[in-house]
Amino acid sequence: MSPSLFRMLMEPPAAAFESERRESLAMVGLALAGGEPLPKALAMAAEKASWPAGRGAFAFLREGIAQGRSLRDLLTQPGCTALPGPVRAVLGADLDDREKGAVLVARATVQDTNHREIAKEFSYVLVQLAIAGQVLIALVMFVLPQFKEIFLGMKMELPWATTILLEVSDFLVGWWFPIVSLFVLLPGLVGLIGMPWFPYLWRGPQRLREMATVLRLLPEVAPHRVPHVLSVIGHPLLLPLTGDAFRAYGEALQRQEPPQAALARMGADPLVACLLHLGQSEGRSPQVVREGVGLLETRLRAGRRRFLMAAENLLMLGIGLGVAVVCIGVMLPMVSILGAL
Questions:
Q1: pTM to 2 decimals?
Q2: Are 159 and 64 in a shared domain?
Q3: Tell me: the pLDDT tens digits for 22-47?
Q4: What are the distances in angstroms from CA 17 to CA 43, 97, 127, 152, 228?
């Protein structure tokens, strides 16, 4: 079975709901980034969004703004709880509507796409692990007991390796249901892989993804507004690993101070530092910044695929080692019998 088919079969059960949520949030971000005012973008989403809970939240915000209520107060009301915390933080931030849209679009492009890719790629490895575990368990539970009867009938002293394997076989036969259930349920971990917190188990790559989010945003912001925007979005709710460093970077630019300390704090490599400098320069080329972000994202994908390739190779070696141990445990008594003839 091909990896693509495995990934399709292992798509998380809530994928349809997640797709509706992402599309609805993206609708607001794209409308704002396209120059629509916030009330009109909310009205559009409240009418056309496919996510029911999101439509209700957008309608609540639109009606509240029309009544002259404070946007920040509205975002803290129960009517907006369906919206993710980072989205509410962006909508209530001290940014103009186009900048809010640019932040939402950049975040969705990098973070949400990354979550989907991780879930799809890790699911294939989990399915392989589940199948390999069940094959090895079947060998130990159903093949070894057949030889056990033969060995015991010969009343011969068994090698220690064979004795250990037979004890493992007896244990698995006695506890087969919970062990087999564990491997059957293993592909269900795909749902956990899709959770927002999962990428943060690898802090280095996730730190680069947050930098890519900010860099993707910069070409959409006027150069003189970049320091202010960085100081606003530099918050742990939006950028858990690099938010404080980006806020310090923006504040250093506002004070016209060298931002080297902030760069060191966020762990920026030369490519990120160069792109940040280009992104806030007056004579910048947005296309150059976008291409640089593409290189950074390619590096992230390549690193993840190298990790998965290594995991698959180790899994294949583990399967081979397990089968070899079972075969050696079965063959050792036979070799002893041949030696005694």
A1: 0.73
A2: no
A3: 889 989 999 999 999 999 999 999 99
A4: 21, 27, 23, 58, 35
